Amino acid sequence: MTTNLRDYRLVFVGPAEGQTAVGDYAEDFVAAVTPHFRDVAEVRTLGPGGDTVRDIRRYRRAVAEHVAAAPDRTLVHAELAAGGVASFWAIAGLPGIPVTATIHDPPQGVWWPAATKFMFGPTLSRKLIFHGLHYPLRPLSTKVEGMVNGRRTLFALTETGRRSIEQRYPHTDAVYVPHLVRERPAIRPVQERPNAVGFFGHVYRGKGFEQVARIRELLPDHIAIRVAGRGTEALPRVDGIEILGAVDGAAEDAFFGSVRAIVVPYGKRHWYDETYPASGVVAHATAYRTPVVCTAYGSLAELDEKSAAVVVRTPDADSDVVAAELAAAIEALLGDCGRLTELGEYAEKTRQARSGPATAQAYAATWSQLLARHHEGH
Q1: Residue 338's domain is classified under what CATH number?
Q2: What pLDDT shows up at residue 72?
């Protein structure tokens, strides 16, 4: 039995566009799912450390008011990420209302439940207080999240992430729907692009940008390296590496049109626990029909050539060994026009399978079944 979503309002809670990669994802997600509902009410937050306690209370009131307007015909959905404390607390409670969430850093929706603007201060003393509170209280955080979301339907963007949620919170209904791939202009096929490889994304711990210089040393000179993304402008300048900084719009199109593959050298992201996020960089590359060369860290291990990925599955955690394996894989791929062409075709197929409409349809099918079960229980 299913339910017609066109009879329902969706109350969506998540970061605003530009507020981390999750905010950008949220913008695409809302646009994709809106046609399935009668109407959509949005409650948009700031990124990690942006919201005060007063802001969080305001979000909670806004969600409650939207729900009260149509309590029998409302579904609440949130985007939850490591420091996304505002979205987490905005959907806490809500008895009798069907609530779902996408977990961007599984197995938990939020790792720092007290990460308000005050706690997220830039000074060393503030950071010590922040982690001094959150790290030892991880068991309590896990228990609190189990109380809030432990029996809800939770979406993961990778199968590895879905399994991790299911293991930590066995009473949840954990559902895997791949990371949405946004629409991007068609650019020339990968085999016709310059002989270059790219590194892309927001610079922070675990993204592997410290590997770029070593990979440059290992690659032959005829393979260029281009680096783009928020924070990359602060990376050390090295001969043979072109650093572009943040790119948007036409500049982003041009960047992807100038590389044959994107390197994703991810490693351990943070020391709280193992997390299994989907890679927004991989989704971005797929949007531009561009293969990736990546490590097998976390959820990246799920990728294969059918998803346009060359996965370096070295068991050695030594950075020099990983860099050497990545460099060898890059050189082999860029030197094989037939294989490069094939991976470009697989990227296009993956792009279509994970488009906005396809993603929305997968969520809608789960939501429809959830609402049917909810009304049967009432």
Answers
A1: 3.40.50.2000
A2: 92
